[in-house]
Write a structure and sequence with these properties.
Helix content: 55-70%
Number of helices: 6
Oligomer: single chain
Distance between the termini: 28 Å
Strand content: 15-25%
Radius of gyration: 20 Å
Structural class: alpha+beta
Order of helices and strands: HHEEHHEEHH
Shape: elongated
Length: 189
């Protein structure tokens, strides 16, 4: 048992020292699948601007329609998880900007934090399923996306936030996205 563990650790260390290729997630790599299957969920910038991506996976479901709806729901759930983290970053930035010397801001901060959490938990308006892929073993993958402009536009629908808060969130949205992207890149290494 110890020998097997030692071999596994050595193999893992050798894999870490290999050539520097594109950043990939920790999931099993699928050579014949699209890049997004291997990259996984996250906040990524690129040709399409700043976009939140969620990858849903389902296997062992024989009914193709049910498998498809399951992967779609799981892809949307992945975006919800990312948005929850993103909203925490936005809230941290908002709190830092309002508490600089002002101790009376705490009740407003709690209101903003609650409203932002509600936003991240609400129906994911604007999330689109943009691709599907089925592996040779029948495992299906779905790719969902929510672009930054749609996210910012959704801020107008939030009646719980006053205009000042909405403007602060919009102003810090790109910065928070970049922070989240950098943090995710650190975890994928």
């Amino acid at each position: 048992m110890k020998k097997m563990l030692g071999i596994a650790v050595a193999a893992g260390l050798m894999a870490c020292g290999g050539s520097k290729g594109p950043e990939m997630s920790n999931q099993v790599l699928h050579a014949n699948g699209p890049d997004w299957v291997n990259r996984g969920s996250g906040a990524f910038g690129g040709d399409k601007g700043k976009v939140f991506y969620g990858v849903g996976i389902a296997s062992g479901i024989r009914n193709a329609a049910m498998r498809r709806s399951t992967t779609d729901a799981r892809a949307r759930a992945e975006i919800a998880k990312i948005l929850d983290t993103y909203v925490s970053v936005l809230n941290k930035d908002y709190m830092a900007s309002t508490t600089a010397g002002d101790m009376s801001a705490s009740s407003e901060e709690q209101h903003v934090e609650q409203a932002l959490k509600t936003y991240s938990q609400m129906e994911l308006s604007g999330v689109q399923i943009i691709d599907h892929w089925v592996d040779t073993d029948g495992t299906e993958y779905a790719l969902a996306s929510l672009d930054m402009e749609t996210f910012k536009g959704n801020m107008d629908k939030m009646k719980e936030l006053n205009a000042k808060v909405k403007e602060q969130v919009r102003a810090n949205a790109d910065k928070a996205f970049d922070e989240l992207n950098a943090e995710e890149a650190k975890h994928q290494k």
